[in-house]
Amino acid sequence: MENPVSNYYGNSNDLRDFLTVIFKHKKLILSVFIAIVMTVSIGSFLIDPVYEAESTILVKIGTEYMNRSVVGNNAPVMSLSQQEITNSEIQILNNKDLIEKVITSIKVEKMYPELLENPPENVKPIDVAIGIFQKKLTIEGVKKSNVIKVSFQHKDPQVAAAALNLLVDLFKEKHLQVFSDPKSSFLEMQLVAYDQKLKESENNLQTFKQQAGVFSLDEQRTLLLRQRSELDTELKNTQKTMSEMHKRLLTLKEQIKTLSESNTRHTSTERDRIIVETKARLLALQLNEQALSKKYTATNRLVVNARKEIQMVKDNLKEQEEEISSKVKTEDRVYQNTEIELLKAETELNAQKGKASVLSQQLAEVNGKVRALDYSEKDIQQLKREQAINEKNYQTYSEKTEEARITDDMNRLKMANISVIQKAAAPAGPLKPKKMMNIALSIIAGLVTGLGLAFVRESASMSFSTPEKVENRLGMPVLATISFKES
After folding, report:
1. Burial of 286 (0-12, 13-18, 19+ CB in 10 A)
2. For the residues of 298-337, what is the DSSP string, one character each?
């Protein structure tokens, strides 16, 4: 639809035509102008003023947004982007429960008294108040930042500021409540359990070491291997010495045998005479026994005693002869020295045999200890692994428990990662209506509307207001004009 003012100017370029229309419809233009200005002015003064309180919140990136494993030492990872974090906080801030707490704390009759004067039907006043509050509440995140701007409109500037500050405080508490993870009690229980397991594994390891006689595995193995090497070397040396002593004994025994069989090396002694006398006595006893046997029976006491005496003499004679055959004569120096060397060699050989037996026994004991130590090593390593695992778990849960305790303490102190950059203050002037701006706009609107209506009316009129208009419409020249004036 074309603008009538433009149509009019298209038909006439003369400023006089424009002024003619204004003066012709000046009453209409003035009436519309006054009506619009008066209406807007009166409305601006009659409408209740609305005040807007503003607050600015800074959302800092805290540990609640970090994805940290419950156990283990993995580094925390950022789980959300900055925009997602800001949107999450906006949703928490716009929570219906928080708004209800604000309205309940300030009282419905103070915030929205009209709801109590004209209570809604079938709806609780608090529910209606929450809806009104949400409509008047504006929350938006500042682009490319972690700042949230919050504003609230109300007829009372003090109520607007108080409600907004209370909402922000409740929001901080709600933030702590939402992100608080009640895991400290669980971690403490796990810490106690792993502490008990750690003590049990330590006691098991200590008990096994005491039972197995193991106190320092590496040192004991080193000492035992060194001791086994020393014993083995000493046993081999002893066995070598025994072999040499055995050969020496054989040599000495051959020398003794040779000396014993050589009669030229013997000298007569008193022992030879004793043997001769013993033989003579034996002969006399044998003759006496023959004589008694002729007179008495074999069971006679005299015959039995004679025979016993004969046997005793024979035994003594045999003993003397054997001793003479195994001993050198007292004055044979070579035989005596050889016999002394033989005795010394036999004594030393026996000593070496005893030493070898003791060394063999000690070496067997050391080998047994080495084998037992090897067998115990597997069990000790298993017990040590269990102790290391329990110690690592205990350390991990100890660190996590300490972190949870710090978080709980921060929550109790309300140390949220939310900072208020600017608290809401009672606004000095109302947000609306803006009276001077409204009056200025009404003046412009009144002039534009009045002129528009004047030109529309002029375009719709069937009369001609100027000679030029007659000539343009009819294509005929105007010969004369007569002025007209309303009476």
Report:
1. middle
2. TTSHHHHHHHHHHHHHHHHHHHHHHHHHHS--TT-HHHHH
Q: How many residues does the chain have?
A: 487
Do 252 and 126 reside in the same domain of the chain?
no
Query: Has residue 473 got a pLDDT over 70?
Result: no
The answer as to whether 195 is a domain residue is no
Contact partners, residue 224, CB within 8 Å, separation at least 6: 366, 369, 370, 373
Is the domain of 257 the same as that of 170? no
Binned at pLDDT 50, 70 and 90, residue 149 comes out as very high
Residue 144's region, left for phi above 0, alpha for psi from -120 to 50, else beta, is left
**Judgement on whether residues 366 and 290 belong to the same structural domain of the protein:** yes
CB proximity list for 332: less than 8 A, separation 6 or greater: 259, 265, 266, 267
**50 with 160: CB under 8 angstroms?**
no
> Which string of b and e fits 213-230 if b means at least 16 CB within 10 Å?
ebeebeebbeebeebbee
Residue 348 is assigned to a structural domain of this protein: yes
Mean pLDDT is lowest, of 60-74, 234-248, 340-354, for: 60-74
Q: How confident is the model at residue 479 (pLDDT cuts 50, 70, 90)?
A: low
Residue 374 has which token pair? 């090897």
* Residue 207 counted as domain residue: no
Specify the DSSP element, H or E, that contains 23. Answer: helix 15-24
Neighbouring C-beta atoms of residue 411, cutoff 10 Å: 18
Please give the tally of structural domains in the chain. Answer: 2
Long-range contacts of 279-285 (CB under 8 A, 24+ apart): 279/317, 281/313, 282/310, 282/313, 282/314, 282/317, 285/309, 285/310, 285/313
- Count of CB atoms within 10 A of residue 236's CB? 12
